[in-house]
Amino acid sequence: MLELSIQVLSKGDVPDVDELVIDAANHVVGRLASTVATLALKGKRVVIVNAEKAVVTGDFNSILEQFKVKLTIVRTHYNPERTGPKTPRRPDRVLRRAIRGMLPYDKQKGKAALGRIKIYLGTPASYYNKPKYVVKGAYFHMIPGSPYTTLEDIWRSIDPKTWAVWRESYDKFKKAIEKKGEQK
């Protein structure tokens, strides 16, 4: 088993590293997005791993219904036959869209900040042994009975075929990484 170092990132902290690797597991999507947007505007490169484990607070059925409404019912005024706007389904793209909404992406500094952010499903091999940060203000403390769901659960309910393909390949990748770690 590989040992991972985890560091806590408080509000207003800007670590003195080239690239921040943030583990999105058990982080509330909106709070994480605002912190990442602030760091990117300050000039830091931010990598978010495990985007599928980010948390959306609220009842699962109401959240799923909101996503389905965005995907199917919303139509444009000038072309009612076409659905739009384009709504992301994958967790990494949902999180990227949330971060983009907190940036002035129509201005040059917002475009540059969005370019400094990378979001991944799972943990790529290149970031597997790097120290990960946990954002203190965005971390979701699980209280028994509080309603929440992960972005992966929403994705599995909306697009099960794509989710199944990804899950199978990611499980194979994790087994290969663990096997390689045991051999060393």
Keywords:
15% strand, two-stranded parallel sheet, Ribosomal Protein L13p, Chain: A, three-stranded parallel sheet, alpha/beta
Task: Tell me what you see in this structure.
With 184 residues, the chain is an alpha/beta fold. It has a single domain (6-183), classed as Ribosomal protein L13 (Ribosomal Protein L13p, Chain: A, Alpha-Beta Complex), CATH 3.90.1180. It has six helices and seven strands. β2, α1 (29-41) and β3 form a beta-alpha-beta unit. α5 crosses α6 (160-183). The termini are close together. 26% of the residues are buried. The mean pLDDT is 86.
What is the H-and-E element order? EEHEEHHHEEEHH
Tell me, what is the CATH class?
A: Alpha Beta
Q: Note the main sheet.
A: 3 strands, parallel
Number of helices: 6
CATH superfamily: Ribosomal protein L13
What's the number of extended β-strand segments? 7
Topology:
Blueprint: E1 6-9, E2 19-23, H1 29-41, E3 45-49, E4 55-57, H2 60-73, H3 91-101, H4 108-115, E5 117-119, E6 132-135, E7 148-150, H5 151-158, H6 160-183
Parallel strand pairs: 1-6, 2-3, 3-5
Antiparallel strand pairs: 4-7
Brief summary:
This protein has 184 residues and is an alpha/beta fold. It has helices at residues 29-41, 60-73, 91-101, 108-115, 151-158, 160-183, and strands at residues 6-9, 19-23, 45-49, 55-57, 117-119, 132-135, 148-150. Helix 1 (29-41) packs across helix 3 and helix 5 (151-158) packs across helix 6.
